[in-house]
Amino acid sequence: MERLAIDKFKNDIRFRHKIAHIEKIPGKEAIYMDLDNLNPKIAKYLENNNISLYKHQAIAYKKIQNKKNIIITTPTASGKTLAFNLPILETMLNDKKATAMYIYPAKALSNDQLNILKNLEKNLDLEIKPATYDGDTPKNKKYGIRQNSRIVLTNPYQIHHILSWHHQWKRFYSNLKYIVIDEAHYYKGIFGSNVAYLIRRLKRIANFYGSSPQFILSSATLANPVELANKLVGEDFSLIDNDTSPSGDKDFIFYNPFYKNLKKNKGSNNLENDSESLGNIKDFEDKFIEDTIANNRDDNWTKITDGLSIHQETEMIFLYLLLKDIQTLCFTVSRKIAELIAMWTKKDMLTYKKPLAEKITAYRAGYLASERREIEEGLKNRKYLGVTCTNALELGINIGSLDAVIISGYPGTMISTWQQAGRAGRGNQKSVVILLAFENQLDQYFMKNPEFFFDKPHENAIVDLNNKMIIKSHILCAANELPITADEAKELFNCDESILNESVENFDLIKNKREQYIYSHDDEASFKHSLDQLSNDSFKVMSINGNNNSNNNNMDNSNNRSNNNYSKNENIDNYNNSNNYSNNNYSNRYNQTLLENMELGQVYREAHEGAVLINKGETYIVDSVNLKSRYVNVYKQAVEYHTIVLKDVDISIKSKIKKEKIGNFTVHFGELEVSEDFHKYKKLHFSKTLGTFNLDLPPLTFKTKGIWFTIPNEIKKCLEDRYNQDDVFAGGLHGVEHGLIGLFPLHVMCDRFDIGGLSTNYHEDTQEATIFIYDAYEGGIGICEKAIEVFNQLVQSTKDLIDNCQCESGCPSCIYSPKCGNENKPLHKDATRNILSYIKNEIDIAEKEEILNKINSENHSYDLKNNIKNNNNSKNNNTNKNNSKNNNTNKNKTNNNTINNNNAKNNIKTKNNTINTNKRENNIKNNTKTKNNTINSTKNNAKNENNNNKNNSNSENVQDMLKEALKLYKEKNYTFAKDLLINILDNDKKNSDSWYLLGAILNDQGDSNGAIKFLKKSISIDPANEKAHELIDIIKSQP
To answer: Is there a cis peptide before residue 826, judged by omega within 30 degrees of 0?
Structure first.
């Protein structure tokens, strides 16, 4: 793709004022590595196809040959598949009975891989008979696959149901050498926890038949890949994460339709050319651009695209790129939106460049397999120029090289975003990625803090192995597969005897004379336990087919684009002549069709009576819910409103598992009992409320795990005195709860709907104002426990988001929540900001105190050594006296360049000791003040702003001080160096190099634990600080 085409977009008058940031990602050359002693057939295959292995592929090859479990986390299109296919097939060339199982989260992936394996089978002249074994496999082919295939491609759901029939797979399991788990980052939350225990069941069956398979995991980039692999499989892993494949230059554009300040955005856009104006456009060659400008002429030309919905803007950018002959993949948030944007674009393209209209289509999971394969091939051979899709094309399906990717709305995780962005720019070609932000906290945080996205590690993937409901389900399944002992249950499933005894009491298990537990029922245990949910209380959602009295008019496609802004959770469907907002009775019922299954909690949230339920792009009205028979009855009706449910939450603390001191701030973690009372629901047409209706549902009560922390009463008094408003404190607590939950997915890989929260002015169990955040699933799934580790960063990012938001009293970009059961009332933005400042201050003060105390205690011993050393040098000693005298006469006098090196060092020492003494006194005062006064007054806030300005003016001196500290460090004058570094950190606590140098000093002084702590602090600020990483490795390798 030509650079000119991308540059035109960046400088186009309709788009450039909304570009929040452009990250230029440079391309890189490939690094290759040769392998010795390859199987001759493998070597010939590589030579015939002109394939040279990248270094990371060769390393993976070697580790697999050496029987190591590996996890590969290089980006999309870096050759991960070839890296594990070749060594597996080499084993099969040498061992004619060896088998392998490939596990994929999606059928499309397994089909893609099947074609690759068949091609390799042919080229290597090797009989492996690879086959897909899943729910779509014809029954008459299954026996042949079990008896003859050496590589079986399947998914977790299929394994879950066939493990109890393991005797039919004896040949396969007896020779099982490898288990490949592709897209391992996909296994998180409830699904990930279930899959982790499923893999343990699979290993148990393999061991029963005498095999001990080696594991190969492939994943997107993660913050905790080795931890994830260990939890999924229960084995040790080697990590391969250094990508050595080639890539072209890529422009990653953050596009914010909800920009607030035009001048601010134009100044921060990193644009290459901002001189173009409406009067001198020369390159608008197509009718589309001319029409757009002609129809939007205004004195304020930057407002041309304002007022459009996010989906309209997506279509406009999509159409723009296609008209420039830029092959583009557009990711959307739902199947419906994918279809709508494709439809709109095709219609508009008929007006501008008719032949291109046939080169536009949508792609989603609901299509037939043959239709999906045709589109995938069409992208490879450029039959299709533009494709809109859901995240179905995010995973590693081979669709060839693309010029551009549009991501309409942040996908929820950085991992998914990079996966989608990786679809553009394969090989060395130039490419562009455009991320359009929605109006929620996560999207807007990245628009205002792009460095967090580009400079920080990706999220942690959470797999919880402590949920007793999940453990019990898999114990029953395991006992159905093979009798299980208490020791085996403990070792494999972390199951204590209380779960086994309870299962015996409930007649789910029987204990035999051999002390083994056996499943007691005649059915299959796996069919009672879903991998996607915790509860076994599954509801069937039944659609009533036939005519009814409600309006079932078809969608009016031509009038489906409104000038309203939509969020990810809004129903954007606009239907013609469907103004009947009541629950019409239906008649002439013929039969019912099963739409989907839901667990109880989802029924309460999404399928209560009167709710609008969306399934495969169609809208249904919930007519009735029968909690006893577990049925939800719905009927299809085209409506232009959506529903949200309102609830009251009550929480009681059942047990305290641990408390974590983060600085001076305490966060508790424990077991909670949550009672959610879903008492009302609202019908809304976009943001306009059409009506509020009562619900008659019993409270939903469950036990889970969560965190909580208290805010002292002094905060309340201070806020009420300052603002003189009744709900100011409650509004601040509520805003903190919303802000933290909104940015949870920034640090822990989850959806905001995976967690719940409650804020209250007073809670009986804590006797103080308290904020609770909890896992929204029975028993918990590990999200909140992981959040303790990143709590400091979570508070900081939430505070940054709210501080940088341009609204006055709160908005969806900062403290409003789309899932709030209290209609976002009360909320108080200023109080929220002040409470977060209090929490952050409590964390930071203690952290600084700890560093100063540690360094000061070491200074005493090293000062003594330096004094002894100075006493042995009489010449230097006399100089020191003169310097002391000079400093007493004029402390502010700068050092003269002609003073010798020893004099300079002593001047630094004297000057910095004075500064540090004053600072330590101030710290004591500030600490006392922090404990007694919770939030600074307006005067102090103004004072802080002045101090910040002062710090900015001093930032130019930081680099000089750092150079001097490094020089002193090299000369082993550690005391002087540390004094300088402390001064630097007083001005800039995020100076990664200073933290690194402090760590290096402590390491030289023999304090390896203190050194690692400071080095980790350096890495948390700058993950790319290679010196810190290397020094940690050196320290850990020392005996």
So the answer is: yes
